Amino acid sequence: MDDLPRRRSRPPERAWFCSDLHLDGGDPGGVERACAFVDHALAEGCDGLFLLGDVFKAWLGTNSLRDAGLAPFLQRLAGAVRAGVRVVLLHGNHDFLLGRHLEQALGVEVPGRSVDVILGGRRAHLSHGDEYCTGDVDYQRLHRVLRFGPLKGLLAGLPHAWQVRLANRIQGASTEATAHKSMIEMSIVDAEVERRLSAGADVAVCGHVHSARDAELEHGRLVVMADFESTGSHAVFSGGELRLVRVDPRWVLGRACVVALDGPAGSGKSSVSRQLAARLGFGHLDSGALYRAVTTAALREGLAPDDGAGLGELVGRCSPSLDAHGAVSLDGVPVPDSELRSEAVTARVSRVSAHGAVRAGLIEVQRGAARLGAGLVAEGRDMGTVVFPGADFVFYLDASLDVRAARRLAQNPGEGQDLATVKDALAARDHSDSGRDVAPLRAAERAEVVDTSELELEHVVDLLEQRVVEGIRRLLSEQRAAARVPPGAQGSGARQARAASS
Ligand code: DC
């Protein structure tokens, strides 16, 4: 039931999607973060920007067009249109009064509740997502009434003060009702998505439920973005692929996040940290690989693992580095994995890494990795204690020696070792890593310790991902509370001053 005619346009090649920004003219921080996101998308060469509903906390027709607090964001959208970007805003449950006035003022498209676009030859059905939540009967009833054409016209024509009062009443009632509803009532009903997909779409993209999900259903793919407002979640179509970004702290906290993950060999930290980084869209730092690189260089030069002075000098000379994909180089030349993970290196690396000069020589290379992208998952022995003591999230993975040895054996079946030998080697490495004087292996005081002995890998990744996403929401609310101005200090005067300066 789209209520405005659609335009024909070229399929986008690099499109950005997000939803549930809940922009409010009285919250300049939120508006600024949304502007930064649009700027970033444009800088990345975006040719389609699709905002899938609840872009605004409330949209009160042409009155909202004049909201000075929203002006920077509206100007950004108009600028994007002028730069040749197709900008589409869909109705959400908060901003269903978006309409032609916005199209005329900014040049954007407001096709109504949904729109289909072709992404790499596949049809994507874009919508806010509330239509899939059919378990929430009260919500569906209320929004059928509110979307009734003549009533919408009436609402749009009301004096501004009445509109604000009504919007607040509806939002208050909705927040109150939401608090008493079950997760089932408020979640997406897959059968509804299947119905939509089987009616002629390859992928359904939406938001609304504030929790990210990327699933292959029977009739196609479902991509659900979490709310941009508190997670920075979005989706990007580029290079023929549609990628869901579950959380991006840059658009929420204004900076990247570091997740520190320590633990002994075989605790699962390498597999967990790699998968966690991939799910979050963060970079991955395998700090052990840097110590292995220095050990490789020492072996090549015939330096003994106990020659602290020689090794300290070697670190400065061999320039160990990591690229964005985690490949390790010495003097700019990639080190083959077979050499890095060879038995000879594994047998010496713990002793090499015990020297203070070696550790000091690698600290800046490791910290440099945190300066790229949305965030970093850093794994090692001293991530939470020494390299990133201020990390936003600190985990320590552990598992019993038996379980760790069995995992190692399963990982390297071709090496012909028996369980007892692997166990002895791990115990010796544990002893050396945790017994050394400099940066010994131990859980940071504030680390969350996770014993993975009885857990599937997938389960550990789920748990850590949930902690990070929830943690970013918590950091955001702390940041907001700290920035909150005492009542009365930011009255209508400040608002008028903003209006006058725009
Ligand atoms: O994670 P790994 O097995 O690749 O690590 C190899 C060795 O490097 C390990 O025995 C201890 C050392 N290491 C360290 O001392 N500090 C780190 N942050 C990472 C690894």
What does this structure look like?
- With 502 residues, the protein is an alpha/beta fold.
- The chain is built from 20 helices and 19 strands.
- The chain has a six-stranded mixed beta sheet with strand order 4-3-2-1-10-11.
- β5 and β6 form a beta hairpin.
- The longest helix has 27 residues.
- It is elongated.
- The structure holds 2'-deoxycytidine-5'-monophosphate.
Number of helices, counting only DSSP H or I runs of 4 residues or more: 20
**Count of discrete domains:** 2
Query: What is the H level of CATH, i.e. the homologous superfamily of the largest domain?
Result: Metallo-dependent phosphatases
Q: Could you name the CATH topology of the largest domain?
A: Purple Acid Phosphatase, chain A, domain 2
Strand order of the largest sheet: 4-3-2-1-10-11
Q: How many extended strands?
A: 19
- Overall mean pLDDT stands at 88
Poorly predicted tracts of residues: 1-6, 490-502
| CATH class annotation of the largest domain | Alpha Beta
First CA to last CA: what distance? 36 Å
What hetero molecules are bound to the protein chains?
2'-deoxycytidine-5'-monophosphate
Structural class, by secondary structure, is alpha/beta
- Overall shape: elongated
Oligomer: single chain
Give Rg in angstroms: 27 Å
The percent of residues in helical segments reads: 40-55%
Strand fraction equals 15-25%
Topology:
Elements: E1 15-18, H1 28-43, E2 48-51, H2 62-65, H3 71-82, E3 86-90, H4 100-106, E4 109-112, E5 114-119, E6 122-127, H5 137-146, H6 149-157, H7 160-179, H8 190-198, E7 203-206, E8 213-217, E9 220-224, H9 228-231, E10 234-238, E11 241-245, E12 257-262, H10 269-280, E13 283-286, H11 287-301, H12 308-318, E14 320-322, E15 328-330, E16 333-334, H13 337-340, H14 343-352, H15 356-368, E17 375-380, H16 383-387, E18 393-398, H17 401-411, H18 419-435, E19 448-451, H19 457-483, H20 492-501
Parallel strand pairs: 1-2, 2-3, 3-4, 6-7, 7-9, 12-17, 12-18, 13-17, 18-19
Antiparallel strand pairs: 1-10, 5-6, 8-9, 10-11, 14-15, 15-16
The structure holds 2'-deoxycytidine-5'-monophosphate.
2'-deoxycytidine-5'-monophosphate binds at residues 265, 287-288, 291-292, 349-350, 353, 380-382, 429, 433.
